[in-house]
Amino acid sequence: MTSREQEFPALLERLRPQCERIIAQYEQKRSALLPIMHLFQEHEGFVSPEAMRVTADMLGVTPAVVESTVSFYTLLFRKPVGTYIVQVCRGLACTINGAEDVMRMFREKLGVKHLETTADGIISYEEVECLAACDRATCGQVNLEFIYDLDEKQIDDMIAAMRAGTYRVPPMVQMEQPQRTWSIVQDVDVSRGRKSRGATDVPQPDNPGGIGDASGVIMLDRIAEGGLAFHGATRERLVTESKEVAELIGNDHAGH
User: Fold this and answer.
1) Is 206 a domain residue?
2) Would you say residue 138 lies in a domain?
3) 63-70 vs 49-59: helix crossing angle, rounded to 10
4) How far is CA 191 from CA 90, 182, 184, 196, in A?
5) Final residue belonging to a domain, choices 70, 93, 120
6) 0.85 cut: is pTM over it?
7) Enclosing domain of residue 142
8) Would 172 be classed as within a structural domain?
9) What is the distance between the alpha carbons of residues 183 and 187, in angstroms, rounded to a whole number?
10) At CA 172, angle to CA 123 and CA 23, rounded to 5?
11) Percent of the chain with pLDDT over 90
12) For helices 214-224 and 243-255, angle between their N-to-C axes, nearest 10 degrees
């Protein structure tokens, strides 16, 4: 068990009142998911599995709902990162003004690649899309604070100040030493068009289930036998299912 895992119960009790105040601001509890995730990341340095689990409990949703939301946003980290996140813009204006050279210098001087953290755990490096500061290209951000007109001297000064603890932007909290990368293997595979983990090592990975496969037939048999009831049927179901299946579901729902 890591020191962070040992400290998490105390952190949760400290943050719970603030979480409850956030939840009270919304008509639906689920709407508080992102603010609570940012709150935990502010105090842990990333969104830990424990934070996602307790948030699911507080909001009355499944852990899968929480993780699917967190995984959508690139500024929510599911693995520990450095105390400084250096993001270099690779948009069109920055590329025209030398972003390729800037990114090369960062990679060489830090000894890392895109989405990697230095061995001392201080600096995480990322190459991002347009940061909307094209008039000051080449630009970037450090812990979401803008840096402009990047050149080699500025890069050297930045790195030295971060490692000395004197950089003008405050460091982020770090409750756990980061690994080499904070990227998630499954996310990378899916982004490149490969099969997700749930679609590997199965007989028909291209068949998502439903009408026409064994699991769909079994489900329809159970519906026909009256073993299942659907509550709160939606128009989406009526659109996606065939007319016969929709009528069968509707009749079964009416009977219950």
Assistant:
1) no
2) yes
3) 120
4) 19, 15, 11, 10
5) 70
6) no
7) 84-164
8) no
9) 8
10) 140
11) 62
12) 40
